[in-house]
Amino acid sequence: MKKHNDQVIDKLLSSVGRHNPAFKIWIIALLVIISIGCFAYYRQLRLGLVVTSMRDYTSWGIYISNFVFFVAVSLIGSLVSSILKLAKVKWSYPLTRISEIIAVAAIICAAVIIIVDMGRPDRFFNVIIYGRIQSPIIWDVLVIMTYLVISVLLLYLPMLPDIALCRDRLKHVAKWKQNLYRILALNWQNKPGQLNRLKKTSTILEIMVIPVAFAIHTITSWLFATTWRPGWDSTNLGPYFVSGAFMLGAAVIIVAMFFIRKSFKLEDFITNDHFDKMGKILVLLSLVYLYFNINEYLGPAFKMVGVEGEHITELFSGDYAAMYWLVQVPGLMLPILLMVFKRGRKPFNIMIISFFILMGAWFKRFLIVIPSLQHPYLPIQDVDESYLHYYPSWEEWAITFASFAGVLLIISLLLKLFPIIPIQEYIHHQDKSEDQSNEI
Amino acid sequence: MKNFISIIPQYSLIRNFFLFLLLLVGQTVFSQKQSAEIHFKFLDDQADKRVAIQVFQQGDSALKPVEELDISLYVERLFSYLPVGDRFNTTDENGYVEIHMPSDLPGDSKGNLKLILKIEDAETIRDTIIHTEVKWGIPVIYDVTEEKRSLWAARANAPLSLLLLVNSLLLGVWGIIIYICYEMYLIKKE
């Protein structure tokens, strides 16, 4: 038994800190994209927000739709490492660390994007020092900071025994990494007292992250729902956002599972069965989201009242119709149909389907933010032609791609620094299942 | 070979300046416009409120009324002056004119209205502005208590219930986070 466990530990630790030329090329490519984004941001800082296509009508562009997207992605942490864990879903534990890493990376980039959207980022702390507690923006700032801290703790605490393993077994890695593992391991020795404390704190975090995760995306939806604009004036917006976020999160983790399994050769730990089960969860979450989608559009589309009607017409058959139907059909309805069949849940197939869901979800955030802003209730007289349309400038695209590269960079570095599969948890579950089979 | 730079004084600037001074002094000394003596009183017959204005000018020996003079009357509002009366309120041969005031103008908390009397662009009288007050407005009492604590008030006047809710949520969640950090410290010390 011990020999088998040692083999498992060695295999799972083998990816940590190992030099890999392909990984280096990947990191350099991400850094190049981030550098281009930094240059675009430098231009934005130097010349002002005028370099973007945001004007008086569309004052929230792709920065904010990207922010909503990242907040949605970050909810995956609470789904896998909390909801599934508390429901004692045993097959999901190899995915907990991946989901938490994605959650941390996404929420960091969401926070950064908000600062990028500010015309005067040097005044960011004024938001906290002089912020009005009545404003949903302040609630959002508070809940994002809280969720970031909880996500980091939820990633870090259950990882303590594995960091201790890295500290004790990885003697070939660089000195700074050894020091890092030593500091982060918090003197972990697998003592009963330490195990008890870890179990207690992990359970508290797993419970606490659920309401905070619901709060973060509900409050993000309130940023829109409390602003008087067509398409946002809806009581449905909170659950609509949360359900969409869970669907997106599940799609993101499937895409991540596929590439991580392939890159780190983890076929023994992330099996085809994991894809099949995540596929079933994704079908359920997509159906819930579809239900909220119908609720969101049916009422206004049936009544077609005033500017709400104009907004709906623009989405259904106007300027944004192509994007809207692409989001609804290949981004939501077709994936549900395909994933219902077992073949649709095979690793490669479901990765492609999840990618479509992911793309659909990004453009869905675009459709939530931009068309609504182009229908202000107080029109400005003799507006400039540029106010009436919104096509993001190259600076906005560069910064958006850089934010994606930033998420991927954080994920890649964390995956390289720490074991991807929770080792101690894996061994514990293996031992337990063997004990049960012996008893039978 | 030396280069010479010649500096020519700009006399035109100095000349223009003196010309300007001369015109200014000339305007003041030789101006035909004189100051006027303006008498006004408020006539209130319940239904009809009027401002009676009489304008005089110093004659050779005594005051003489100013005939055919346009007078404007305004009520000060929040952002601008509201004109009242007719478009032209012209004095008669006695230098007298009456301007009717609306009786439904909102005033301050005591009903005071700030009035502005103006004589502008008259032939023989200098531009004159007189500020005065009359208690002919409808008293408007702002309910300050209602504005005090509300969702739309400044940050210092946030609703107590909201403050209580948000702060207790924050205290609860961050209290747990601090407790977890303390537990991490105990794990390290174990």
From TrEMBL, chain A:
Q: Name the InterPro entries for this protein.
A: NrfD-like
Subcellular location(s) of the protein = Cell membrane
TM segment ranges:
21-42, 62-86, 98-116, 136-157, 204-225, 237-260, 281-302, 322-341, 348-370, 397-418
Q: How does it sit in the membrane?
A: Multi-pass membrane protein
Keyword entries, A-Z: Cell membrane, Membrane, Transmembrane, Transmembrane helix
- Transmembrane helix found in the keyword field: yes
* Cellular component GO terms held in the UniProt record: plasma membrane
Q: Which Pfam family would be a valid example here?
A: NrfD
Q: Which domain of life is it from?
A: Bacteria
Q: Name the major location.
A: membrane
- Tell me its family: Belongs to the NrfD family.
In Swiss-Prot or TrEMBL terms, this protein is called: Polysulfide reductase
The taxonomy runs:
Bacteria, Pseudomonadati, Bacteroidota, Bacteroidia, Marinilabiliales
Automatic annotation (TrEMBL), chain B:
The record's keywords, sorted A to Z, are:
Membrane, Transmembrane, Transmembrane helix
Q: Which residues cross the membrane?
A: 160-182
* Name listed for the protein in its UniProt record: Uncharacterized protein
